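To: structure desk
From: M.T.
Subject: fold request, one chain
Message: Could you run this one when you get a chance? Sequence is below, nothing fancy, just the single chain.
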Amino acid sequence: MRAAAQLPLPPDFRAGDILAFHARDREALAEQVGPATLRKGLWWRGQPVCLQVDFSPGQAQVQWQLADRDPALAAQAAQDILPLVRRMLGLAQDVAAFEARFADHPLLGPVLQRQAGLRVPVAGTPFEALAWAIMGQQISVAAAVSLRRRLIVAADLRHDSGLYCHPHADQVLALGLERLRAAGLSQAKAQSLHAVAEGVQSGALPLDAWAAAPQLPAAQIAQALLAIKGIGPWTVSYTLLRGFGWLDGSLHGDVVVRRGIAQLQQADVDQVRAQAWLAPFAPWRALVAAHLWAMQAVNA
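Reply: Done. Structure tokens follow.
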């Protein structure tokens, strides 16, 4: 069953940022990216969905394909998919207020001018973002991409189109620790991911409900995640950013963020100095981090 709808986009929308985020895995198992198109496999309400977003100036054409032909399920998809896509595209992020507030900042202002309209791409689900954050701890992006790919293949959730879907908590629990280890996760990462999946299944970590809340309970989410062994402040801030679109996590523990601050200040920066430098940018500290990532990607 196919359906489609249109989403208006702001004039300064940067579709390239969204496409680049989903093009990290060159094997394109779960995401396929074209010049102005994103196709992504999603696991939604117990079934695979093929999501396609076609970007053009001022709008995005959103299409989704369900395997199930139940009219009630199709109606539910119409209610769920568009808010999900809006979150993925960062359309609720108040980047205009941020850019206006810091346009005259002596160091960050010129960066904002060059990167006007930058929004943070968000993962398909909060669980997907949290899994990525756990797998990406203290390793390179390339290594994290490889782990993610192997996890997706191990779960083997596929849409009829051939796209794989990122596993949700139930599928991670079904894999078990042994198969998570066989997919390349370290013992510590496998245990953390398994514990998160248990929390989602038990209701202790209602990630999707938190994402749908009128006001994100960021402090509650952070407290719940920090109680899990192997999850620290960086993982929490990254998950809040990539899973929920929350823009105020302090990513001072991120090596690339510290490198960006050092580049702006022309001085060495440790975690303490990075945290202090980011503090005045609240409630947009994570958005600053995204600008620092983008700044260095352009200069690479």
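Reply (cont.): DSSP finds 14 helices and five strands in the chain. Let me know if you need anything else for the meeting.
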